Amino acid sequence: MQALAIDGGPSLRSAFLPYGRQSVDDDDIAAVAEALRSDYLTTGPQVALFEDGLAEAAKVKFAVAVSSGTAALHTMYASCGVGPGDEVIVPAITFAATANAALYLGARVVFADVDSDTLLIDVADVERKVNSKTKAVVAVDFAGQSAQYEHLRATCESKGVVLLADAAHSIGATRHGLLATTLPDAATFSFHPVKHVAAGEGGAILTDDAEVAELARSFRNHGITTDHAQRAVAGTWEYDMVQLGFNYRLSDIHCALGRSQLKRLKSNVGRRRELARLYDKAFADIEGIDPLVTLDGNESAHHIYVIKVDPAQFTKGRAGFFDALRAENIGVNVHYRPVPWHSFYRELGYERGSWPQAESAYERILTLPLWAGMTEADAEDVVEAVRKVSEAYRR
Ligand SMILES: *Cc1c(COP(=O)(O)O)cnc(C)c1O
């Protein structure tokens, strides 16, 4: 057997393979160039057209485009009435923004544990933590598969709690044949370059609730009730600011790119599914390398591909695998460190040991490269590298 690259052997790949990457084609570039030559760089026609496309793709009535996925979370929480003193339940393993956005509004974050097989929010723990102060439960469609909204719905409805989704990972995912975005009261997307639809930066709120959509439109524009186009139609200069909003607008340049990318959403998700199947098949034969479980009835959109490294099988743990695979030029990553473990949250009083499933899963998880522009040969390199490192470190 070849020596591992980390022990001085040759790297399995000569070029580094990142864990995620955008796919930009000539149509995307032409769409952006056209927006740049148009009359509007922001608050122009591309915004409404992108929103129409998003609402259609998500099968909801309203989409409101904003400047990032984080801005989308902030806007969604505010528009659903989250405010000072409210509790917002979020999973302990997610990107920090899911929790941070509740703090922006003066709410208190309550972290629920996650299921160790899926890293989806643990329904039983949510049930335990919902109380009269809870305003919203936010599920994260981790790695691209839908959370168990029908169970969460049962808990939320009886207590008058809003059910929300951070769907940054799951654009295009379905649960029991229904698009995941149609299951919560509102959901958010991100258009960061590693996500399914890349706009450079950007995000959106998706909902069937007309009131939430209207509040979101005002919140992204300083809390003003009309935009310049509506005032032009009405023939007036006057506008009213009714809530304290932000400038969270997304430009026509970004929306033009997003619209063009959205056309390839289906093929992009299809490609991710093919590559995920290739991984599933290969790792079924490597003992101690366990991909996250996909629940029955879920078709994942496969934002990321996460494996768990079983410490009982190997002489090195996840950190050892991370270093060895990076040395082989495989861009592994970790999604995510439990949010309450960050110094900022620790100082707010959250204590380690409170989310046993999340915290033990965190010691094992490793994200492998997965993106639509990857070739089969790239994916086979990843499998080969995981096999090589597993064999070298097997007990
Ligand atoms: C990417 C992401 C966000 C934040 O999106 P930005 O567009 O980077 O602000 C929030 N939550 C999750 C789960 C994400 O993956």
Distance between the termini: 16 Å
Main β-sheet, in a few words? 7 strands, mixed
Estimated helix fraction: 25-40%
Topology as H/E string? Answer: HHEHEHEHEHEEEEEHHHHEEEHHHEH
CATH architecture assignment of the largest domain = 3-Layer(aba) Sandwich
The overall average pLDDT, rounded, is: 97
Q: Name the CATH superfamily classification of the largest domain.
A: Type I PLP-dependent aspartate aminotransferase-like (Major domain)
- How many domains, as an integer? 2
| Strand line-up in the sheet with most strands | 1-9-8-5-4-2-3
Report the portion of residues in β strands: 5-15%
Ligands bound, unique: pyridoxal-5'-phosphate
Low-confidence stretches: none
CATH class of the largest domain equals: Alpha Beta
Number of helices: 14
- CATH domain topology of the largest domain: Aspartate Aminotransferase, domain 2
Q: Pairing-aware structural class of the strands and helices?
A: alpha/beta
Rg from C-alpha positions? 22 Å
> How many β strands by DSSP?
13
* General form: globular
What does this structure look like?
This protein is α/β, with parallel strands linked by helices and 395 residues long. The protein has two domains: 5-20 and 265-393, Aspartate Aminotransferase, domain 1 (Alpha-Beta Complex); 26-262, Type I PLP-dependent aspartate aminotransferase-like (Major domain) (Aspartate Aminotransferase, domain 2), CATH 3.40.640. Helices cover 38% and strands 14% of the residues. It has 14 helices and 13 strands. The protein has helices at residues 26-37, 45-58, 69-79, 97-104, 123-129, 149-159, 210-219, 228-234, 252-262, 265-283, 318-327, 343-347, 356-362, 376-393, and strands spanning 62-66, 87-91, 108-112, 134-140, 162-166, 174-175, 178-179, 186-190, 203-207, 289-291, 298-299, 305-309, 365-368. The strands form three sheets. It has a seven-stranded mixed beta sheet, sandwiched between helices. Strands 7-6-11 form a three-stranded antiparallel beta sheet, with no helix packed on it. Strands 10-12-13 form a three-stranded antiparallel beta sheet, with helices on one face. Strand 2, helix 4 and strand 3 (108-112) form a beta-alpha-beta unit. Helix 2 (45-58) runs parallel beside helix 9 and helix 3 packs across helix 4. The longest helix has 19 residues, at 265-283. The chain is globular. The mean pLDDT is 97. It binds pyridoxal-5'-phosphate (PLP). Pyridoxal-5'-phosphate binds next to helix 3 and helix 4.
